[in-house]
């Protein structure tokens, strides 16, 4: 029997369509069909200036917008050969780690909800609200933040930022324990996840899987450690790994990652350096507002930069970061004009989803739901 | 021009380069030794190594890079197309490789013209399957030996390939016709 699962299905986390060939309840063949959310973001990027691309990156992985901002900006900064000042780097680290928490909260809530544990969703969204408040505080937006800019941040962090983050750092560990109490040794949870959606480390690498899925197979690869960006080499944290590469191990890895993220945030808060929030690179970064209103030259620079943007040298770079879902890379090609000639996003979800048939074929149809949840897909990023 | 004075440019790049250069040299010597006629161009930009290679040798080169124990580029991070409209050959296909054990990256590029095809690397990395489908969908570049080359993001009956530079951003210009015949309002 051929069964169409999706595109409108509550457990597909968006508009994913799966064509399942079934033999009774066993899956013989699974074919993902994607593209329902394709909006041509990469094409649109080619018609925008480098700074105008930033809001578009939010709209891909809308559960973790700041990670997308950061990945894009690091590749543009690499293209320009500039670096954000230490303070901006620390704020970037704090916010992307909080984004990781927010993303993992959405994952743990919806994943547990799919499998039948309703309570976790309500708990997770309760905590996510606190993180959303922080994002709203710094950027004015809960989801489409666009807070990072080329060379640093859009503006300095507002008053009350530190105390709000501190509150999260202090209260969050207990909340993680709460989720674990509900799930980690829950017999139904174990039955639904242990041994389900298994993939070996070798296959995972062959399929290009990254992030918690690959670490769940026991491969200790985290870009924050292997190629530290934005000053990650200054923080101490562990890379949690699993053994069996099943849904349960991915769950354990992500839960531990939340704890490690809190460690990083705490260290970043304590070591927060003084200084400017953006690298004042001429012709790339807007001059300070006080100068714009008092100095004609600054006003001209401001105007030119807003209207024309900046022109990086001819060349191409690839830069990737460890997003909550895995390796998020941007391949930016510059032809020397003020608009990127080509921006290719390497979305972790797109690649991770391509291994779905490998994980579910030969297993029961109920396992598909568990596996989709464990891949942690965001269709906005897959279809772009 | 006061804001011009405090420009802070990173020097981390240079440190990174020194450590990296040795490995990059090794990749190049090995490739030149193994495939003396295949390498067309070597580009170094921002400490990233790019090798433009002959299209027909891409499978052999990728297999070598993956299997050589000193290189072991076992992870295909990304594969994508770039359209250089007006250039001949028209397209680039870029392969971003990563070695998990050595923690190194290298980029391979092949040039391909309209109507020509590139040998598929799906036999080397399964992940190339969807990437190549996307390149086919967006640029119309065909991959020889691909097990299932269909459109992936666009509808099956879509005409054209959206990421080509001669494909318009919007199929039809939006016309704001609602106030076309009205005289401009003066307030």
Rg of chain B, please? 22 Å
Strand order of the largest sheet of chain A: 1-2-3
Radius of gyration of chain A: 21 Å
- Most extensive chain interface and residues per partner: A-B, 56 and 46 residues
What CATH first level of chain B would be assigned? Alpha Beta
CATH topology of chain B: Beta Polymerase, domain 2
Multimerization status: heterodimer
Description:
The complex is a heterodimer of chains A (384) and B (187). With 384 residues, chain A is mainly alpha-helical. Chain A has one domain (2-383): Cytochrome-c3 Hydrogenase, chain B (Orthogonal Bundle). In chain A, 50% of the residues lie in helices and 12% in strands. In chain A, strand 7 and strand 8 (342-346) form a beta hairpin. The model of chain A has no long low-confidence stretch (mean pLDDT 90). Chain B has 187 residues and is α/β, with parallel strands linked by helices. Chain B has a single domain, classed as NADH:ubiquinone oxidoreductase Nqo5 subunit (Beta Polymerase, domain 2). Chain B has helices at residues 12-34, 58-67, 128-139, and strands at residues 39-45, 48-53, 75-83, 91-99, 104-112, 117-119, 142-144. Chain B has a five-stranded mixed beta sheet with strand order 1-2-5-4-3. In chain B, strands 6-7 form a two-stranded parallel sheet. The longest helix of chain B is centred in the N-terminal third of the chain and has 23 residues, at 12-34. Chain B is elongated and about 70 Å long. The chains are: A mainly alpha (384), B alpha/beta (187). Chains A and B meet through helix 1, helix 8, helix 13, strand 6 and strand 7 of A and strand 3 and helix 3 of B.
Question: In brief, what are we looking at here?
Answer:
The complex is a heterodimer of chains A (384) and B (187). Chain A has 384 residues and is mostly helical.
């Amino acid at each position: 029997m051929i069964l169409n699962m999706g595109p409108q299905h509550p457990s597909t986390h968006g508009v994913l369509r799966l064509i399942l060939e079934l033999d009774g309840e066993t899956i013989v063949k699974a074919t993902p069909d994607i593209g329902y959310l394709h909006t041509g973001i990469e094409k649109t990027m080619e018609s925008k200036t480098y700074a105008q691309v930033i809001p578009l990156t939010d709209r891909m992985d809308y559960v973790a917008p700041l990670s997308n901002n950061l990945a894009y900006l690091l590749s543009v900064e690499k293209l320009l050969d500039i670096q954000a000042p230490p303070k901006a780097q620390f704020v970037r680290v704090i916010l992307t780690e909080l984004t990781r928490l927010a993303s993992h909260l959405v994952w743990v809530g919806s994943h547990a909800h799919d499998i039948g544990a309703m309570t976790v969703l309500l708990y997770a969204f309760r905590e996510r609200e606190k993180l959303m408040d922080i994002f709203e505080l710094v950027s004015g937006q809960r989801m489409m933040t666009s807070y990072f800019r080329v060379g640093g941040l859009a503006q300095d962090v507002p008053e009350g930022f530190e105390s709000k983050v501190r509150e999260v750092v202090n209260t969050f560990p207990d909340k993680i324990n709460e989720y674990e109490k509900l799930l980690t040794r829950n017999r139904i949870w174990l039955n639904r996840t242990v041994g389900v959606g298994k993939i070996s480390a070798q296959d995972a690498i062959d399929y290009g899987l990254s992030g918690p899925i690959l670490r769940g197979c026991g491969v200790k690869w985290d870009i924050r450690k292997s190629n530290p960006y934005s000053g990650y080499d200054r923080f101490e944290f562990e890379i949690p790994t699993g053994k069996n590469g099943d849904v349960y191990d991915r769950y354990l890895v992500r839960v531990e990652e939340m704890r490690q993220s809190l460690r990083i945030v705490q260290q970043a808060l304590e070591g927060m350096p003084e200084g400017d929030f953006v690298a004042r690179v001429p012709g790339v970064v807007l001059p300070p507002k006080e100068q714009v209103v008092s100095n004609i030259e600054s006003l001209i620079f401001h105007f030119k930069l807003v209207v024309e943007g900046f022109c990086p040298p001819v060349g191409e770079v690839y830069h990737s970061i460890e997003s909550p879902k895995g390796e998020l890379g941007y391949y930016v090609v510059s032809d020397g004009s003020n608009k990127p000639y080509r921006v290719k996003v390497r979305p972790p979800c797109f690649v991770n989803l391509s291994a779905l048939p490998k994980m579910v074929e030969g297993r029961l149809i109920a396992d598909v739901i568990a596996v989709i949840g464990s891949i942690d897909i965001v269709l906005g990023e897959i279809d772009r | 021009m006061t804001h011009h004075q405090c420009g802070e440019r990173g020097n981390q790049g240079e440190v990174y380069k020194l450590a990296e250069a040795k490995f990059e040299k090794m990749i190049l010597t090995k490739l030149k030794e193994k495939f003396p006629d295949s390498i067309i161009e070597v580009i170094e930009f921002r400490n990233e190594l790019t090798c433009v290679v002959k299209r027909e040798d891409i499978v052999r080169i990728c297999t070598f890079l993956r299997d050589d124990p000193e290189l072991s580029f076992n992870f295909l991070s990304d594969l994508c197309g770039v359209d250089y409209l007006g250039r001949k050959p028209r397209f680039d296909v870029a392969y971003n490789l990563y070695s998990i054990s050595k923690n190194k990256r290298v980029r391979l590029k092949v040039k391909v013209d309209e109507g020509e095809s590139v040998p598929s690397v799906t036999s080397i990395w399964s992940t190339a399957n969807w990437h190549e489908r996307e390149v086919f969908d967006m640029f119309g570049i065909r991959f020889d030996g691909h097990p299932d080359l269909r459109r992936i993001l666009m509808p099956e009956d879509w005409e054209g390939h959206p990421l080509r530079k001669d494909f318009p951003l919007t199929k039809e210009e939006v016309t704001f016709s609602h106030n076309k015949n009205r005289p401009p309002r003066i307030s």
